[in-house]
Amino acid sequence: MIMIGELLIGGLVLLGALFCGLGAFGLFRLPDVYLRSHAATKSATLGVLCVLSGAFLFFFFYMNVASVKLLLAIVFVFITSPVAGHLNGRAAYRSGVPLWKGSVQDDLKPVLEERQEQADSQQK
Predict the structure, then answer these.
(1) CA 52 to CA 58: how far, in whole Å?
(2) Res 115: pLDDT
(3) How far apart are CA 122 and CA 124, in angstroms?
(4) Which pLDDT does position 1 carry in this prediction?
(5) Residue 59 and residue 70: Cα distance in Å, rounded?
(6) Gyration radius of the chain over CA positions
(7) What is the rounded average pLDDT of the residues 71-100?
(8) Cβ(122)–Cβ(67) under 8 Å?
(9) Mean of the per-residue pLDDT values for the chain?
C-alpha cells in the first residue's frame, strides 16, 4: 500500500521535473532574450523548489532528519534565481538588445529617458 507521504513526495518531484521541462521548452520556443529569461527563471526556480521540497520531505518522513542544508538551498534558490533573472534582463536592455517585435509595452524606456534628462540637466 502506497502511503500519502510517498504520493506527496513523488508528486512534488514529478511536478518539479515538469516545471523544469517547461522551462527548457520555453528557452527553445520563445522569441527574445527577455521572454527566455522569464521562462528560465520562473519555471526553473519553481521546478527546483519542488524537487528540493520533495527531497526535504523524504528525509524528514523516512530518515527522521530535518535537513538544514536542504532548507538553506530552498531559501537560496528562492531568493537568488529571480534576482539574477531580473538583473540579466536589465543588463540586456541597457546594452541595447531589442525587444521582440510583438512586444506591446516597454515600461523601462520612459524611466530611463527621464533619468537621462535629469542627468543632462544636472551637468549643465
Answers:
(1) 10
(2) 86
(3) 6
(4) 52
(5) 10
(6) 20
(7) 89
(8) no
(9) 88
